[in-house]
Amino acid sequence: MSESLLKLLDEGKLLKYTRLFLLTYGLRVRKKLGQNFIVSKKVVNSYVESLKEIHNPMILEVGTGLGAITYFIAKRYPDRTIVTIEKDPLIYDVVKNVLGSLSNAVFVLGDALDVLQEARVSTIISSTPYQLSTEILLRAARNNSINNAVLGVQREVAQRLVGKPGSENYGRISVISQLLFNIEVKGHYSPKCFYPQPEVSGVIIILRRKKKYDTKIHNKLEKLTECLFSYRNKLAQKVLSLCIDKLTNRNLTINYSELEINDKTRVRELRPETIEKIVEKYLA
């Protein structure tokens, strides 16, 4: 049966591969794990080709799924090792058996969120479970070993990542991501590219690190932005005083003119660099 499944992969018939895989091994889609399997060869190719300009000998895949991305990366880049982590033990056992002939693929059973905190790899790739997109992004940002990430996220998350100050999509994740990464939106894909179909469209993004995560600065920046964007439409001066007092337990005098924050500036209009400067001056 493994040979029949591999033949379908080689022919790019991913929907047939997915259905036969699940039927043959009596597996069910587990919605609580965010399982939506890629059935579009075009989307898989977008992931694989996104690695062409990233020259790292090891790639960490967050979430093996049914192994489509794993298979085509291993075939496309035989001189690289792909370490792929799957949380679902049932899928892990079967995929490891079906794709076991891949000499440059290492299959690991575990929670990739835990691994992301300590992984000593430069490049990660993932068709992320949509409910975990933001958490995966944050954990990748905190791990300075990770310099490149190719991630599939829901369209709304991608819009927030590249959101400009003052826009509806601008928020906490915009600030953190834009400070630490150069962000490229690679391609869009519809729910029809997955089985079962999710309710929202997806986007492939490429993150390239431009700044290291400084625990002293950026840990406090995460806390400050969490507070600030709870009041995103409020006046920035008032909210900044509230949040800084809350985080420091001190009544600090803030030089708003130096920060170019006037009495009409809203929280949603604060630039990432301005927020980072506030942390460096008043919270570090």
Question: What's the layout of helices and strands?
Answer:
Blueprint: H1 2-10, H2 14-24, E1 37-38, H3 41-50, E2 58-62, H4 68-76, E3 81-86, H5 89-98, E4 105-109, H6 112-118, E5 123-127, H7 133-142, E6 148-154, H8 155-161, H9 172-180, E7 181-189, E8 194-195, E9 202-209, H10 215-228, H11 236-248, H12 272-282
Parallel strand pairs: 2-3, 2-5, 3-4, 5-6
Antiparallel strand pairs: 1-8, 6-9, 7-9
Any idea what the shape is?
A: elongated
How many domains? The number is 2
Under the CATH scheme, the architecture of the largest domain is: 3-Layer(aba) Sandwich
Q: What's the count of strands?
A: 9
CATH class of the largest domain: Alpha Beta
Question: Radius of gyration from the CA trace?
Answer: 21 Å
The SS-based structural class is alpha/beta
State the strand order across the main sheet.
4-3-2-5-6-9-7
Measured between the Cα atoms of the first and last residue, the distance is: 59 Å
Order of helices and strands: HHEHEHEHEHEHEHHEEEHHH
Mean pLDDT: 95
The residue fraction in helices comes out at 40-55%
CATH H-level superfamily title of the largest domain: Vaccinia Virus protein VP39
Unreliable segments (pLDDT under 50, ≥5 consecutive)? none
Q: What is the CATH third-level topology name of the largest domain?
A: Rossmann fold
